[in-house]
Amino acid sequence: MNTIVLEDDFVPVIDLSTRDRAEGRAAIAEAIRTACETSGFFTIVGHGVSRDLITRMHAATNAFFTMPEEEKERSANRAGVSGLRRLGSYEAFAAHVTGDLPEAVRAALGDYPSTWKVANIWPAAPADFAPTWREYLAAMTDLAADVMRLFALALELDEKFFDDKFDNHVSLMLANYYYSRDDEPAPAELRRESHTDWGTLTVLYQEHDNGGLQVRREDGEWRDVPAVPDSFVVNIGDLMAFWTGWRWASTVHRVVNPDGANAPSRISIPFFYLPNHDAPIEPVTADRNESAVTVGKWFTDKVRAAYAPELEESA
User: C-alpha 285: how far from its chain's center?
Assistant: First the structure.
């Protein structure tokens, strides 16, 4: 297996093309273990997702975001509910793997408010948007499932250890469209604020020539994550860090503005692979005495911690 390493090994590029052989899987798992114990970030090539699908996904998503505003609003809204959100310097469109299920099935996905219980709101235009997104969601699910098996090997667990925790997963896909701008950004102005992901793992497509993703080292230094052609960036989230007994790192990351004026628009498409809503998650090591938590409770607590202070201040 060929593994290309960027700079100081903080975000390695890992070639998955030999994952169909036992010795290849073992070598890949070892590389993943090293990455997850340091930055929690790595870039994958040789992943098997077709370039044609990635190209069509980008094209359909870009076509939606660049439609005239009135047409985009009509396409994105149904009965006052929208799959489109505007968030300052960018806008986003979201869909869940559960969003096309019947309402009664979605309602049974936990007794707490959650986005995976909401119906997907598919735009009417462009015509290939919904079918392309569904195809891409399926490809991301297959890829993420195998990455989780590689995670199991990296943790010296049975390769199928995580499988039954994801057989009714509630994963989310999000497309971010960062606006182009003619003016020069203010010092320290960000396209996306510093944050960690809350879930298990994220598989990210970022537009090749319009980067901006940075991860923060323990010493506080920010490192760029280059957009390698035909690659995805993978990172673990807080839930996966908990699941490993905090042996693996859920790392703070952000999106910065390009230097200077005349910055182009940028598309990024993260797929957040989330376990079954009622899956019991407990650390796989005995290093800490922590109780199991369900995925639904984990996310409910995260939402309350993140947004309750704002709600109290505005009351």
Answer: 25
